[in-house]
Amino acid sequence: MSARLLDGKALGAEVRARAGEAAKTLPGQVGLAVVLVGEDPASQVYVRNKHREAEAAGLLSFVHRLPADTPEADVVALVERLNADEAVDGILVQMPLPEGIDALRVIAAIDPDKDVDGLTETNAGRLLLGRRGLVPCTPQGSMLLAGLALPDLTGKTAVVVGRSILVGKPLALLLQAANATVTMAHSRTKDLGAVCRTADVLCAAVGRPGLLTAEHVKPGAVVIDVGINRVDAPEKGEGKTKLVGDVAPEAAEVAGWMTPVPGGVGPMTIACLLRNTVLAAARRRGLEDPRGL
Ligand SMILES: Nc1nc2c(c(=O)[nH]1)N[C@@H](CN(C=O)c1ccc(C(=O)N[C@@H](CCC(=O)O)C(=O)O)cc1)CN2
C-alpha cells in the first residue's frame, strides 16, 4: 500500500484565502504583530514567511526584531505595548527564545484575547475546559489535515508521540474533543511500537528525524508528521541539508494517509495563525466568529 498524501500546501492556501476573505468583512484592518528575538536562522525564515503571508491576505503585519541579548524585561515591555496597541489584534512571540529569556514569563504577558499562538495559561485552560478560545496553530493545522482523511474521529484511536506545550499537549486535547480515544506517548513510553500500532491516527511531534518507522504504523492509519528536522544531505552535494520529519518515508508503505515533510503540517501553521488573527480581530470588535473561516 502507498499512503495518500495529506497536502498541507494546498489546504494551507485555502485556509489563508478564507482568512483573507473574512478579514475583508471586518471594520478596519486586521493587525498581526510578530516578535523575533535573536538571529535563529529557521525563526528568521518563519517570521519572514508570516509577514509575507499576512500581507498577502490583506492584514497589517508588524514585525519587531530584537537582538539576542535583549533583557527579558524589555521583551515583556514590548509585549505590553502591543497589548495596548489598538492596531494590533494578534501577538505572536517566535519560539525558541534565546537562552536567558523565560518563554513562559514572556507568554504570560500576552493579552489572552490577542494570543494568536494560543499559548497563554488562559487559552490553554479554555482548551482544557472546552471553552471558546484561541487554539495553538500547529495542532489546529494537524486536525484540519487529519480531517481530510477522517472527517469523523468518533471512536477512533489516536496516539500523540510528544508532549510539548506547543504541539503534543494541545493536539491530544483537540483529538479528545473530537471524540477520539487518545493516548499520549513520549520518550519514557515502554514499547512505543506496540502503542503506536494501536493508532488509527498517529501523530509524531518529537523533533527526532525518522523516530517512527513502518513498524510503528497500523496498516491504513492516518499519519500526521509534525516533525520538521533539518539534516545533512550529502547526496545533494557537500554542505547541503534537507528537511525530514519524525516519521521515516517508508512508513508510507503501511499508512493509508500521510503528511509529507516539507509540505504537510508546516504550511498549516502559518495558515492557522492568520485564521486565529482574524478570529481574534472579530471577537475584539464584539462580532460573531466570521462564517466559513
Ligand atoms: N511562537 C511560535 N513559535 C514557533 C511555532 C509556533 O507555532 N509558534 N512553530 C514553529 C515554527 N513555525 C512557526 O512559527 C513554522 C514551522 C514550519 C513552517 C513551514 O511552513 N515549514 C515548511 C518548510 C519551510 C522551510 O523550508 O524551512 C514545511 O514544513 O513545508 C512554518 C512555520 C516553531 N516556533
TrEMBL record:
<keyword id="KW-0511">Multifunctional enzyme</keyword>
<dbReference type="GO" id="GO:0004488">
    <property type="term" value="F:methylenetetrahydrofolate dehydrogenase (NADP+) activity"/>
</dbReference>
<dbReference type="InterPro" id="IPR036291">
    <property type="entry name" value="NAD(P)-bd_dom_sf"/>
</dbReference>
<dbReference type="InterPro" id="IPR020631">
    <property type="entry name" value="THF_DH/CycHdrlase_NAD-bd_dom"/>
</dbReference>
<feature type="domain" description="Tetrahydrofolate dehydrogenase/cyclohydrolase NAD(P)-binding">
    <location>
        <begin position="136"/>
        <end position="284"/>
    </location>
</feature>
<keyword id="KW-0560">Oxidoreductase</keyword>
<dbReference type="GO" id="GO:0000105">
    <property type="term" value="P:L-histidine biosynthetic process"/>
</dbReference>
<comment type="subunit">
    <text>Homodimer.</text>
</comment>
<keyword id="KW-0521">NADP</keyword>
<keyword id="KW-0554">One-carbon metabolism</keyword>
<dbReference type="GO" id="GO:0035999">
    <property type="term" value="P:tetrahydrofolate interconversion"/>
</dbReference>
<dbReference type="InterPro" id="IPR020630">
    <property type="entry name" value="THF_DH/CycHdrlase_cat_dom"/>
</dbReference>
<dbReference type="GO" id="GO:0004477">
    <property type="term" value="F:methenyltetrahydrofolate cyclohydrolase activity"/>
</dbReference>
<dbReference type="InterPro" id="IPR046346">
    <property type="entry name" value="Aminoacid_DH-like_N_sf"/>
</dbReference>
<dbReference type="Pfam" id="PF00763">
    <property type="entry name" value="THF_DHG_CYH"/>
</dbReference>
<dbReference type="InterPro" id="IPR020867">
    <property type="entry name" value="THF_DH/CycHdrlase_CS"/>
</dbReference>
<dbReference type="GO" id="GO:0009086">
    <property type="term" value="P:methionine biosynthetic process"/>
</dbReference>
<dbReference type="GO" id="GO:0005829">
    <property type="term" value="C:cytosol"/>
</dbReference>
<dbReference type="InterPro" id="IPR000672">
    <property type="entry name" value="THF_DH/CycHdrlase"/>
</dbReference>
<keyword id="KW-0028">Amino-acid biosynthesis</keyword>
<comment type="similarity">
    <text>Belongs to the tetrahydrofolate dehydrogenase/cyclohydrolase family.</text>
</comment>
<comment type="pathway">
    <text>One-carbon metabolism; tetrahydrofolate interconversion.</text>
</comment>
<keyword id="KW-0486">Methionine biosynthesis</keyword>
<dbReference type="GO" id="GO:0006164">
    <property type="term" value="P:purine nucleotide biosynthetic process"/>
</dbReference>
<comment type="function">
    <text>Catalyzes the oxidation of 5,10-methylenetetrahydrofolate to 5,10-methenyltetrahydrofolate and then the hydrolysis of 5,10-methenyltetrahydrofolate to 10-formyltetrahydrofolate.</text>
</comment>
<feature type="domain" description="Tetrahydrofolate dehydrogenase/cyclohydrolase catalytic">
    <location>
        <begin position="6"/>
        <end position="117"/>
    </location>
</feature>
<protein>
    <recommendedName>
        <fullName>Bifunctional protein FolD</fullName>
        <ecNumber>1.5.1.5</ecNumber>
        <ecNumber>3.5.4.9</ecNumber>
    </recommendedName>
</protein>
<dbReference type="Pfam" id="PF02882">
    <property type="entry name" value="THF_DHG_CYH_C"/>
</dbReference>
<keyword id="KW-0658">Purine biosynthesis</keyword>
<keyword id="KW-0368">Histidine biosynthesis</keyword>
<feature type="binding site">
    <location>
        <position position="228"/>
    </location>
    <ligand>
        <name>NADP(+)</name>
    </ligand>
</feature>
<keyword id="KW-0378">Hydrolase</keyword>
<feature type="binding site">
    <location>
        <begin position="162"/>
        <end position="164"/>
    </location>
    <ligand>
        <name>NADP(+)</name>
    </ligand>
</feature>
